[in-house]
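**Polypeptide and fold**
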Amino acid sequence: MSDICSLVDGKKLQGTGYPNLDVKYLRGEHEAKTLNSGKFVSANTLMILVDGENSGEVFRTPIDGYQGSTFKQLSINDNMNIEYVLQVINLHRKILRENKVGSAIPHLNKKLFKAIDVPIPPYKEQQRIIETVNKAFVALDMITESL
């Protein structure tokens, strides 16, 4: 994983009002508060939860705003299919949740995250894998709805 992505912070800004893109806002649980300073992230940025119970969960920002304090930006190499990398991360979420570090506030084990082995097939094969996975999820959804 360390060869194909990195965890970074947004650029610090002050004096500009933007919404706070915290986990509750990104989950649709409440409206965003406006802040006048913070680490700026643009719309459609991938952010990974690094603090808290659900460390390893990835969100895509719907709007420009300030990065919530429990997040890092997930920057994925341009040579990789983003959805493919997100599926690999999703496959490892349970392991990441079960191996958090810190006692008072659990944190994403970044060493474990960076050590995740990611098979890297050619780009077109990554696309075919994602298409197959998506079709399987659609079929599972249809089965679940029919029960």
The two ends are 38 Å apart (CA to CA).
